[in-house]
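--- STAGE predict ---
source: upstream dedup step, 1 unique chain passed
mode: sequence only
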Amino acid sequence: MQNARVLKQYVFIFLAGLFLNSPLAHSLAIDLQPASIIAGSGDSVSFDVNISGLGDFGPDSLGAFDVTVGFDPGSLSFTSYTLGDFLGLEGFGEALDISFGDLGGAVNIAQISFLFDFELDALQPGSFTLATLNFTVDSLGAGQSTVLSIFQDAILSDAYGDPLVPTSFGTALIEGKANVPLPGTVPLFAIAALGLWLSRRSQFSR
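--- STAGE serialize ---
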């Protein structure tokens, strides 16, 4: 798997290098939203991988990315991801999904755009969602928590293939919630407790 990841990075750099060179480069931030949620075992949770710091409908725009998000597989199970459309529509051949997906304790998302620089400039605001990651909470009780984090080996390039350097990498916190009895079970507990109390009272009165 490590060899495959290295090979993909070489392919990523090669394809990104097909674009023209440009001297522009911006510092960027990659974060996760929501930054904090409360969830319990069995819940489904989703997080957006967002980028900010781009030129707002102008240079620099994002031409390619390779981002990995780590998580605790003892608490979460990865279920799926959905890439955004801000690098172009894959169905029209405007972009290519080269994600590895689930790596076991990490999720890799990667995409290359085949649009021209002026097309990306017209398409992209200063910040947008790269992808949405979906998980199922397997084991997380009250007082427990788990953290998702963006690996700092992310690869980003602009519309010309030049590197963009992220300066901030976000995290997201999931805090466990207490299990609340279902409404239908509360009367059952009350009836059981009442029956036990009447039984003991009957024994003492004999």
